[in-house]
Amino acid sequence: MTAPADTTRLGYFLGPHGVQGGIKLYVLGDAGQILSLPRVYVEGRGWLRVRRADPLAPGVALQLAGITDREGAELLRGANVYAADADLPGLEEGSFYYHDLRGLPLLDSAGTVLGEVSDVIDAGPQDLLVVQHAGTVSGPRQSLLPLQAPYVDVQTEAGRPVRVVLTDDAPAGLLDDDAEE
């Protein structure tokens, strides 16, 4: 079972919390943004209503509809958890969710379109942009770019991301189709 379209991965379940069906969620990003969600999509279970969410480092403890005991929570250990993009709370001016980057053009510093961002991957200490681009020899391809200053600049207008720019500081060959795989 894959996550529905227009969802963002929040994290994954670590295991039970207490004996009444609570479950610890390891959060990718800011745990505070999860506290007001009305529902989450749980891999293998579908959409579940959030009955309660409490801060608990390194994430939150959730009480979900239909999970009423420790054994039920244990069955969810390791499952990925997603939120509907529309359910996520608004952010401060100039801040954005990673899903806001999907579909944005990737430009070089001169403004030439190099490709399109199709996703963002949480790869532990370094998040990666998934970029679809033309390549140079073998046709269309996909590359992973570090979402890191000074290599990448996410430019905004009216507080919303509108383009991603690969700066002159980026290492050469990040989108090179001729590189050995």
TrEMBL record:
Keywords: Chaperone, Cytoplasm, Ribosome biogenesis, rRNA processing. SUPFAM superfamilies: PRC-barrel domain (SSF50346). Residues 94-155 form the PRC-barrel domain. One of its GO terms (biological process) is ribosomal small subunit biogenesis. Binds ribosomal protein uS19. HAMAP family: Ribosome_mat_RimM. The PRC barrel domain binds ribosomal protein uS19. An accessory protein needed during the final step in the assembly of 30S ribosomal subunit, possibly for assembly of the head region. Essential for efficient processing of 16S rRNA. May be needed both before and after RbfA during the maturation of 16S rRNA. It has affinity for free ribosomal 30S subunits but not for 70S ribosomes. Belongs to the RimM family. This is Ribosome maturation factor RimM. The gene is rimM.
